[in-house]
Design a protein that fits this description.
Elements (H helix, E strand, L loop, with lengths): L1 E2 L7 H13 L16 E6 L3 H13 L3 E8 L2 H15 L15 E3 L3 H8 L2 E4 L6 H10 L3 E4 L7 H16 L4 E3 L7 H11 L6 E10 L15 H7 L5 H4 L2 H4 L2 H10 L7 E7 L14 E7 L5 E8 L6 E8 L3 E3 L4 E3 L5 E4 L7 H15 L6 H20 L3 E2 H5 L30
Parallel strand pairs: 1-4, 2-3, 2-5, 3-4, 5-6, 6-7, 8-11
Antiparallel strand pairs: 8-12, 9-10, 9-16, 10-11, 12-13, 13-14, 14-15
Helix pairs in contact: 1-5, 2-3, 2-12, 5-6, 6-13, 11-13
The chain binds nicotinamide-adenine-dinucleotide (NAD).
Nicotinamide-adenine-dinucleotide binds next to helix 2, strand 3 and helix 4.
């Protein structure tokens, strides 16, 4: 295990040092692995549930891949993921696919730099806050990227990601987003129907992500070595780390609304939300319910609701209403306005998590580039703007949200105290 010895620093210092470090790094040209079966070195940053899954999918996608380095802010996480992936992919009598040794497992806030230095393709799967700085370092260093959603927690982060996406495009680097429904066969077929006019013109949309929530955080002695450790281990409950749950989770639904609107952003957003059941201090500073309305230039509205309440009705569904019919996106069906099913996708949906990686590695081998930077940034901003409207209680324009100067980065990344803003109060919390 390699524990990063570099000291922690602020996001701005990080970005500066990442950019400086990239000066001496040879940028890979997209064609380097095209058409060949030569080794593609994969590095994993953020070795939690999703990161371990993404590592698995990257190794399954292409027989010429090897996992050469892993990084997590926590030593126990990187060790656990390394152990799990080694067990899955290093079989007796076969060529090992996880070639990272214990020395190539890095821990700490700067660990990502070591991984980026040692691979061709980086999988970014930490908590959302860190995505902008990790993505910038990866593309500056000329690496192809798989980038989990959401890609930021604030507007400066989204603007940074848009710039990173531009850099990736300039360097012909692949940038594949973890907004996985865009890679699902059934969803692709359904949106194809919408594009081909099966429901006429879109009139309105409704998306719901109403579930019981995620893990219940407890302050165990091991987690209380510092407030920063508590927050990172329970990142979901802190707006600076997750963006709030409408950003972390509801983004999947909002992305489908954006997809239906041909990736055009809305013009205004207004909404409400609050904290009805998760009121204890251990739940950090996020809300437990949101109701947000997005309005597009042509008058189309998306009604988006999400909540984390236990023992209540659960619903995860997306509907798109058109002049000729209604799409139930999750069920891949179209009904006319009399309720008759006029189209249904019956094929296999496929494993969307695997398809993302199959297409990423397929593109690298074919010397092609996929760049999902535009929609992954806009969908992240859709979610953030909904949070901003609910926290402040104001109707906001898309432009104001995109230009927001609110930066949720803490003053430093240190294993010490980290005070966070109080839970937002609509009408009092200001838009920044
Ligand atoms: N596409 C999907 O369907 C899907 C599903 C689950 C999660 N996700 C996304 O994947 C990301 C991770 O979620 P998860 O469920 O795996 O969470 P997790 O807590 O299991 O894993 C996150 C890991 O990142 C590590 N980490 C945090 N900050 C870091 C840093 N600065 N450097 C290195 N490592 C750091 C954490 O210690 C943790 O091990 C989130 O953005 C989440 O929204 C996407």
């Amino acid at each position: 295990m390699n524990t990063s010895s570099e000291s922690s620093s602020s996001r701005r210092t990080f970005l500066g040092s990442a950019a400086a470090a990239a000066v001496g790094t040879r940028a890979l040209s997209a064609g380097v692995h095209a058409g060949g079966s030569d080794l593609l070195k994969v590095g994993l940053v953020g070795v939690g549930g999703r990161g371990t899954g993404a590592g698995q999918q990257a190794l399954n996608a292409d027989p010429g891949t090897e996992l050469v380095a892993l990084a997590d802010v926590f030593e126990d996480a990187v060790e656990r993921g390394h152990r799990q992936l080694s067990r899955m992919f290093n079989k007796d009598g076969q060529k090992p696919r996880v070639t990272a040794t214990a020395d190539q497992c890095y821990a700490g806030f700067d660990a990502y730099k070591r991984v980026i230095d040692s691979c061709d393709v980086v999988l970014l799967a930490t908590t959302p806050h860190f995505r902008p700085q990790h993505l910038r370092a990866a593309v500056e260093a000329g690496k192809h990227v798989f980038c989990e959603k959401p890609v930021a927690v604030d507007a400066p982060g989204v603007r940074s990601v848009l710039e990173s996406s531009r850099i990736a495009e300039e360097k012909n680097l692949n940038l594949v987003s973890g907004l996985c429904w865009r890679y699902h066969h059934g969803k692709r077929a359904t949106f194809e129907q919408i594009k081909n006019g099966a429901i006429g013109d879109i009139v309105s949309m409704q998306c719901s992500y109403m579930t019981g929530g995620v893990w219940d955080p407890r302050r165990t002695p091991e987690q209380c070595s510092s407030e920063m450790e508590y927050q990172l281990r329970n990142w979901y409950y802190y707006t600076w780390l997750s963006g709030d749950f409408n950003v972390e989770q509801h983004i999947h639904s909002l992305d489908k609304m954006l997809w239906a609107m041909n990736d055009e952003a809305p013009v205004t957003v207004s909404g409400s939300g609050g904290r009805q059941v998760r009121t204890d201090e251990r739940y950090g500073n996020i809300y437990d319910h949101f109701n947000v309305v997005y309005t597009w230039k042509n008058g189309v509205k998306a009604f988006a609701r999400c909540r984390h309440w236990q023992n209540c009705e659960n619903e995860v569904d997306d509907y798109i209403v058109g002049t000729k019919g209604v799409v139930n996106v999750m069920r891949h069906t179209i009904t006319d306005h009399s309720g008759n099913v006029v189209w249904k996708f019956d094929g296999p949906g496929g494993d969307m998590y695997q398809i993302e990686h199959d297409e990423l590695f397929g593109a690298i081998r074919a010397g092609k580039t996929i760049n999902n930077g535009d929609y992954m940034s806009k969908s992240t901003m859709l979610a953030i703007s909904g949070r901003m409207a609910a926290y402040t209680g104001q109707r906001l324009t898309w432009e104001a949200c995109m230009n927001s100067e609110e930066d949720l980065t803490p003053s430093s990344y240190e294993w010490s105290d980290n005070s966070v803003p109080a839970v937002a109060v609509p009408g009092k919390t200001k838009f920044i």
